[in-house]
Amino acid sequence: MRSVKTRWPCSLRGRLLGMFVTGMALSVGIVAVAVLTLMPSLGQRLLHSGIEDYTEAIAEHLHFDAQGVPTGVDESKIEAWLFTSLAQEVTARILDDTGRVIYSSDAPVPSHPPAGTAPLSADGQPFDPALRSFRFHRHGIAMHGATVHLSHAGRPWMFQFATSDRLVLRMRDSFGLPAVGRGIAATCAVFLIIFFITIHLTLKRALAPLREASDDAQRITPRTLDERLQVEVQPVEIRPLVTAFNQALDRLQQGFRTQQEFLASAAHELKTPLALIRAQVELMPDDEPRRWLLDDVDRMARQVQQLLMLAEVSEPQNYRIATVDPRGTLQEVFDYMGRVAERRQVLLGLRLADDLQPWRVDRSALFTLLKNLLENAIQHSTPGSVVSLTVDRLGLCVVDQSPGVTPEQLPRLFDRFWRGPDRREEGAGLGLSICAEIAAAHGWQLTARCAAPGQGLTMRVDMPGSSSLTQGLLARTGAAQQRAQEGGPERAPVHAIQRPASLAHQASGASTRPAAGKAVSEALF
């Protein structure tokens, strides 16, 4: 047996999210490797660019005397301790247009530097006014310096500023990098939170057509095989899958239609041979073998008729929905089945609720549904028992006093061709299947309930919204899966009681009257 590997995550949304996270992790890794590789050269570049920026910023805050000569930096903007306390680490020069130093932060009196004070320049090179940034050593300390040009009162000046590499690197390692790291970490955390929220909402919206297609696919039943999933609203990558699914539905619908047509054709073709066989058997002498043959022919004819009925009720287009008053059909079925009940010596009870409203149903299908439910209850009831039909605004209920079924047999009641162990020689096992098809076509829910073995069987038809409109057949969206709240029928006055003549004759005796009265009371009240 081949083992199946489980892929994680199973959901498409999870996989897309995983791909995004993996891509982000790879991008971060690549950037980190690049930064570590380029860090040395990048540090030197940052020192060069940084010293130029610092020099330009300080040059904007020089102080000039009344004659327009610079005397130093504006101490209200740049504090003097920067040059005195850090004399070994930072230095500044102010030069005139000839390159003569007129201010030096290293001098005892900065505004009057000693004669011969040289401008700052690169190691081993003379002063170059055009060189903006340069590297040199002072007292054995590596430093970076810069020169910027400025003009004041029409006179050109040059300002030089330099700082030691060790000071810049120490500040970077002690304060800059940790602060930057914390800032980056906080920014990344906020970014990830926002990213996951936005990507979740984006994926949810992007995958909405797939969820709608899944919901539409779940609503497709054998009765709604003509429904198809919309291809145009799906993403381009998913359209081939949706198209293939629709094509599979086409093949399935064609196969189902062929099966139904074969079933109907076979049943129809068997009716004529059976009629001829019965005619030939009726010409035989009236003896026991003749009666056996007639029973067999009648049983086969009934099965053929039920096959035709099953094929008809399985096709939604065969129904003719209209607004009808159910009272007429109910009474018609009740009277029709009264003769069957009389032969079986079973009492029939009918109760109609006072608030019963018109139904949106197929009248002939309703007749077949009621007839099959009552016929099933009568056939399984013992002589002298009661079968009651109760109808209210929520549906109808058929209760009998038969031996019932076991809990294991209850789920199989509506299976086609299934018959109980004690009914192997009677019926075709299609009556309740036909009822289930009719109920599903109207959007009703047909359920069977047995309180306990030997205490009868209750068949309940719940009709959601049946007083106004039948949703199942008109919408063709599988409304048979709707379930109304289960419960016993609402009490209503007894409309009629059909009492077989044979039981009425037996009830004249004192021994049978109390039993019959008790049965009617238990079934109807």
Task: Report on this structure.
With 525 residues, this protein is of the alpha+beta class. It has twelve helices and 15 strands. Strands 13-14-12-11-9-15 form a six-stranded mixed sheet, sandwiched between helices.
In short:
By secondary structure, the chain is α+β, with helices and mostly antiparallel strands. Helices cover 47% and strands 16% of the residues.
Show the helix and strand layout.
Layout: H1 12-59, E1 62-64, E2 70-73, H2 81-84, E3 90-95, E4 101-104, E5 133-138, E6 141-152, E7 155-164, H3 165-206, H4 208-218, H5 239-282, H6 288-313, E8 322-324, H7 326-344, E9 347-352, E10 359-361, H8 363-380, E11 386-392, E12 395-399, H9 431-441, E13 445-449, E14 458-462, H10 471-475, E15 494-498, H11 501-506, H12 513-524
Parallel strand pairs: 9-11
Antiparallel strand pairs: 1-2, 3-4, 3-7, 5-6, 6-7, 8-10, 9-15, 11-12, 12-14, 13-14
**Shape call:** rod-shaped
Strand content: 15-25%
- Give the uncertain stretches in residue-range form: 467-525
Mean pLDDT: 75
Backbone structural class: alpha+beta
**What kind of oligomer do you see?**
single chain
Strand order of the largest sheet: 13-14-12-11-9-15
Per DSSP E runs of 2 or more residues, the count of β-strands stands at 15
Main beta-sheet strand count, sense and barrel state: 6 strands, mixed
* Span between termini: 61 Å
Number of helical regions: 12
From N to C, what is the helix and strand string?
A: HEEHEEEEEHHHHEHEEHEEHEEHEHH
What's the alpha carbon Rg, rounded to whole Å? Answer: 49 Å
Helix content: 40-55%
